[in-house]
Amino acid sequence: MGARYSGNFTSLTLAAVADTTTFTTNQVVYLAGGSATQRINVSEVYLGGEATGASAVQIAVLARDSTAVTGAISGGRNGLLDGSGTAPATAPSFGTTAATTQGQRSATLHLLHLSYNAYGGIVRWVARPGEEPSLLGTAASLGEMSLSCFTGTVSAGSSGHILFEVA
Amino acid sequence: MANLKHLKDQEGYLMIDNRNAPVPDEIVVAQGLPIGAGRGMQEFATYTCSHCQRVVVLNPERQRERAYCRGCHHLICDPCAAIRAQTLTCRTFEQVIDETLSQSLIIGA
Known about the structure:
- The structure holds 2 protein chains of 2 kinds.
- By secondary structure, chain A is mainly beta.
- Chain A has one domain.
- Chain A has no helices and 13 strands.
- Chain A has strands at residues 4-14, 29-32, 39-49, 57-67, 73-74, 77-80, 93-95, 97-98, 104-117, 122-126, 134-136, 144-149, 156-166.
- Helix content of chain A is 0%, strand content 52%.
- In chain A, the strands form 3 sheets. In chain A, strands 1, 3, 6, 10, 11 and 13 form a 6-stranded antiparallel sheet that branches.
- Chain A starts with a strand and ends with a strand.
- Chain B is an alpha+beta fold.
- Chain B has one domain (4-108).
- In chain B, 34% of the residues lie in helices and 22% in strands.
- Chain B contains 4 helices and 5 strands.
- Chain B has helices at residues 4-8, 25-30, 78-87, 93-108; strands at residues 11-18, 40-48, 55-57, 68-69, 74-75.
- In chain B, the strands form 2 sheets. In chain B, strands 1-2-3 form a 3-stranded antiparallel sheet, with no helix packed on it. In chain B, strands 4-5 form a two-stranded antiparallel sheet.
- Strand 10 of chain A pairs antiparallel with strand 1 of chain B, so a sheet runs across the interface.
């Protein structure tokens, strides 16, 4: 078993972004390989809404990115689940912004739809072991995934995590 | 014909808690979720398509049979089932990853 991580974020204001439209800083969560050959398996996605008004429908999408970010990914937190575990030589990239240009969600490679109301709502998806969606490397569209909100979303705060493993 | 135990072994889990405020049916259905998924607390089984890795939420009301690939002995999503019917080939995502990884290693060598 490889190193398992919890990539988590707090109080992101997730707003509607159409497919193949450049994301805005801190309105998306990125996950990408730390190297050209690093493989990552995603085993869980969790979102907890923090909206203050009742009409806060969020159409969250975990998808592959058709345009990968450029520059380092930062923001959020990326911690080993096992405190005594050993991190790989190159850590996976997880965060809410990119240093140079932001990525774009693929129009066709949506992996998971998680519609919920961020006014007190929560949503959690867990993969069966061995059935996890995976990414490889850093280049689009195989090497980067994003968790973001699709057209029709009402902008609202959310916190959550993505659990993943370096295979 | 795949046995039921084998198919159950492929299932993931989705929980959506909208007890505090609902999501209209037209939105959840447009996202591939069953009618009523936006109301109250709901739990669903899911599976990951072995050909494209899309996560499919199992609609308990669905009458049509789920697509099963006899090449990889795994449930696949409807779009991949249509491709499978046209091409009669099984190309799993694991193969895509293996091929990409092999190419990266060759280029890097």
